[in-house]
Amino acid sequence: MNRGLAFALALAALLAVALAGPAPDDKYTDKWDNIDLDEILANDRLRNKYLECLLADNDNHCTPDGKELRKNLPDAINNDCARCTDKQKSGTEKVLKFLREKKKDDYEKLLAKWDPEEVYRKRQEAENSS
């Protein structure tokens, strides 16, 4: 599993793979797992709306899935996406790769906001060096 998946959850929700609280099996809900991430990544307006939500100081302008993401993101980052579904994990990989390669400034802003202690970055560096 890519260590970047935990942080990518935020980005996945950015692309509408949002988390809506734990399901009975202690996984995050799969309610938004079938959203077309490619469409969101390719659409500046949609992608920027999720970025705005994730970078804001509060969730006042977030969609319901964005609000749930903001609520669950710290847990996902700190626990290496342990409660993510397989679809959420693959979606986060896709989103992270897109942002790292095509929207580096947005990627760095999200890391600064959601990974200030560099939990994700340190995991990613450790994985890449092994």
From TrEMBL:
It comes from Gryllus longicercus. The keyword Signal applies. PANTHER family: CHEMOSENSORY PROTEIN-RELATED (PTHR11257), EJACULATORY BULB-SPECIFIC PROTEIN 3-RELATED (PTHR11257:SF12). Keywords: Signal. Residues 1-20 form the signal peptide. This is Chemosensory protein. It holds the Pfam family OS-D.
